[in-house]
Design a protein that fits this description.
The protein is built from three helices and two strands; from the N terminus they run ββααα. Helices cover 42% and strands 8% of the residues. The protein has helices at 31-52, 58-72, 98-104; strands at 14-17, 20-23. The longest helix is centred in the middle third of the chain and has 22 residues, at 31-52. The chain has two domains: 7-27 and 81-106, no CATH class; 30-72, no CATH class. Strands 1-2 form a two-stranded antiparallel ribbon. By secondary structure, the protein is mainly alpha-helical. Strand 1 and strand 2 (20-23) form a beta hairpin.
Length: 106
């Protein structure tokens, strides 16, 4: 994602793009660690692009993207501990965030 600002759910767990919820980075990560992981993610994304152009191992590059996103808390086990389910990649209209998402359009 670019550094554009996307609406964030009131609980801070997701941001919304084109009606779909995407899990936010774990806010408990120390800033230095978050920045390091974002750098790793960007490097991995560039490796995917290069691999698609025939300059590398696509499977390894995609694994590196996944590892960085898991470390950031955007994939894998959820970073909150209240037992709430994960709605990552769900359409907001099909989740408990439906009313909130609808209000954004007004």
């Amino acid at each position: 994602m670019s550094r554009r600002s996307y609406p964030t759910t009131p609980d801070g767990r997701y941001f919304i793009v084109a009606g779909r919820l995407w899990r936010s980075t774990n806010p408990a990560l120390p800033e230095a660690k978050r920045l390091r992981l974002v750098d790793e993610l960007m490097d991995a994304r560039r490796a995917v692009k290069d691999a698609k152009a025939g300059k590398g191992d696509l499977k390894a590059a995609r694994a590196a993207v996944d590892a960085a996103k898991v470390a950031l808390g955007e994939r894998g086990a959820v970073w909150w501990d209240d037992g709430a389910p994960d709605y990552n990649r769900h359409l907001a209209r099909n989740t408990p965030y439906a009313d909130w998402a609808t209000a954004l359009k007004r």
